[in-house]
Amino acid sequence: NAGVMQNPRHLVRRRGQEARLRCSPMKGHSHVYWYRQLPEEGLKFMVYLQKENIIDESGMPKERFSAEFPKEGPSILRIQQVVRGDSAAYFCASSPTGDDGNTIYFGEGSWLTVV
Amino acid sequence: GNSVTQMEGPVTLSEEAFLTINCTYTATGYPSLFWYVQYPGEGLQLLLKATKADDKGSNKGFEATYRKETTSFHLEKGSVQVSDSAVYFCALPNDYKLSFGAGTTVTVRA
Q1: What is the pLDDT of residues B1-30, one digit of tens each?
Q2: How many angstroms away from the CA of A39 is the closest CA of chain B?
Q3: Cα A79–A84–A87 angle (5° rounding)?
Q4: Is B53 an interface residue toward A (CB < 8 Å)?
């Protein structure tokens, strides 16, 4: 059973470009979470999605960031017009349900560097 | 909402030393508690968890006991190895998402 798959693992973008990060949850998992880890900081929740629905995006910056989890295919975190401050590790996680107490499983992360 | 407060590092130890990382929580009810570990350049891996009060989670020589009287879930290992060098995160559910502590960087020297 493959784990949470993220790609690309490393991404370099120039300021103003777009970054697209992809996440395929574990088989059988319909709940996806995105977290961001800034250098020397902890993990900050960004968004929680179920298939075709955004449940909670309270941690998403108001501008330039968007996320989707279509009926078919991976979840996508999209960052438009990237700035240097977007440089971070972005982690996707999945769980079989959204109930409290369910373990969530993390992918290896996508490291974004904005130059 | 639910939250955790985690001992800040960094922590530097010699091999075979005893490791403790403190974690206390504030929560409604008795949610599950987790420790995750992040090795350099990698994602987070679940290290151990406890689902109810007085439960002890254990894995890879690490242990943590869910103590409701002190609202704590301290992580311990009796004899650390260089390979235990990593960042350790305490976490608990906050609604349907996990809230994490700030992370504790542990470096074990040979």
Answers
A1: 889 999 888 999 999 999 999 999 999 888
A2: 12
A3: 65
A4: no
